[in-house]
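PT: before anyone asks, these are the final sequences, not the draft ones from last week. 746 residues across everything. Please model them as a single complex and drop the result in this thread when it's through.
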Amino acid sequence: MGAPLSFKIEARAGEARAGRLVTPHGTVHTPAFMPVATYGTVRGVSGADLRALGAEIVLANTYHLDERPGAEVIAAAGGLHGFTAWRGPWLTDSGGFQVTSLAQRAQVAEHGVTFHSALDGQRRTLTPERAVAIQEALGADIAMALDECLPADPSEGERMREAMERSLRWAERCRRVHSRPDQALFGIVQGGTQPALRRSSAQQTAAQGFDGYAHGGLGLGETLEQRDALLALTHACLPEDRPRYLMGLGRPEDLVRGVARGVDLFDCVVPTRHGRHGVLFTSEGQLRVKHRCFERDFRPPDPHCDCVVCTQHSRSYLRHLLRSGEALGARLASLHNLRFYLRTLERVREAISVGTFRALHDEVITSSRVRLG
Amino acid sequence: MGAPLSFKIEARAGEARAGRLVTPHGTVHTPAFMPVATYGTVRGVSGADLRALGAEIVLANTYHLDERPGAEVIAAAGGLHGFTAWRGPWLTDSGGFQVTSLAQRAQVAEHGVTFHSALDGQRRTLTPERAVAIQEALGADIAMALDECLPADPSEGERMREAMERSLRWAERCRRVHSRPDQALFGIVQGGTQPALRRSSAQQTAAQGFDGYAHGGLGLGETLEQRDALLALTHACLPEDRPRYLMGLGRPEDLVRGVARGVDLFDCVVPTRHGRHGVLFTSEGQLRVKHRCFERDFRPPDPHCDCVVCTQHSRSYLRHLLRSGEALGARLASLHNLRFYLRTLERVREAISVGTFRALHDEVITSSRVRLG
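LR: through. Structure below.
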């Protein structure tokens, strides 16, 4: 495997690490949060917005983009970097998460996953080889191996082992066909909440050898303490000098807990999805801005925030927009929440460097449990 | 009546005029287009966006804002300039247009209009006095007299005369109670498509004396030629040195035709509404960007446009966003269309000054009739 990525750890605080991930399309300072652009756009947010917010890498979904507009259209545009207005680093997931999120429309067999599309009624089979081919066409800086992602369910011990072992076989098939020298390929550790399965998955995935490693299937039912322990035991089996990515998580609390166990990359739809529903993450807690109590509250959503929303708009105005179903409300709430997430990780990186990470970790957890409104 | 506005005509081309309207919150170069912010926001577009697009004045709807969030909330924020992030000049309509647009929910009597709200089931009566009180609370730079706006319908001759005469009585009641010295009040000429009614309305409205004058009830069924003639005969009855506003119109062609007859102000939801539906106004014609033929068209929507959309996004990407129901698609299309309208009027002003208005007028009409896709 080539070296499309370089990763350098520059500071540590316990297991937490601050580093620099250099990709073909730019440098990502880690720990980093990746906004989610399911269909090649973060809901309501443009490439220029993402740059202004301080994003350094963005995630897109292989499965959804292959449905619409189709990988060939994006390839014809020169890949995601040419098709969209985000020219910086991209990561594409493999479609493995859709085994869970579209479970009722997906059938898993050894050769791959067959989806019955809700969009056009067509059957689409995602094999490891096809997942790689699509991702090479999309041209992301980082591609993910196809995995069979199952939600944590202690009753499904044997089923979980099967999915974990199949994910290993699929990972190997992905590795074998992956050929773009300017694209990294990450493996994904599975195994649900069973420590033995997860350890085995981590050891074998590491032995296969990838540019980076991800935790799959977490945030789907385990407790915070279970997750902390699983992250720690997995990291003990992974090469220290490769980036680690906790897929699909989460709330600000999940991020700082993950960082404390050594995670370098995160992605989640929470900031944009919660934003659309009127939940704003602030330094003072979660603000449910549609609540009546904000009707005449003309303060900014977060008085300590530097974003374009907080410097120009009030809680009262945001409440009005969101209650009126105005698209600007969802947009402004998403912009604020993304800036809150990105700024939290900026603060995390700084705190790791100067030795104050533990205090910041506790502050984020405490404030993220407060509910306003 | 005080003089909250100063208006100076700086260049002419036939009946067309280019001028400068100075309001308490800034200068508007005329002829000007006012983006429509029904609920205090142009759909999907922020105050900062409007400034970047080159907007100089924005319109909001008295009736809708009084329903939600309520005039008192906006007054408590310091009016529209404090509540929203658009700090420049505002114009508020009076609610008279809702007599037509919400006809099935409105009952007109001499004292005012009673609306049966679709939002909360409540009855709200808009009298001339209340329309002024709400607009004074909203604090716009320009308020409109309450009128009874009917669509052009030649069969309703007597009904149209009644509405026109009632509008005159309501205008006088508005004038009598209007008291904010920092807010202009415009009268509205009605009378449908009947030249005699419209002339009579214009003469009597002018005799009452307003800071500016509007054409109401047009764009609701008359032919282009009828409208041109009605504008010309109305302008002959209005004071030359006061701004003239053609309410609710329209397409680019409607704008340049109105300018040619001496109109100074326009507003319309067409650029944003058409944008949301995937219709882009370009220098080459109306681009129906959702059409299949743009699937792999990686050119900008309008190669001659200077907007943030055209400099960073392709037809193919916009098509994908709009077909996927992504909010960013509606936003980008709205931003482009608004810039197209605002730039068209920038070009109109320049052309009036340098003597090339007739050529530009013809160019806009010709290109706006072309359909792409």
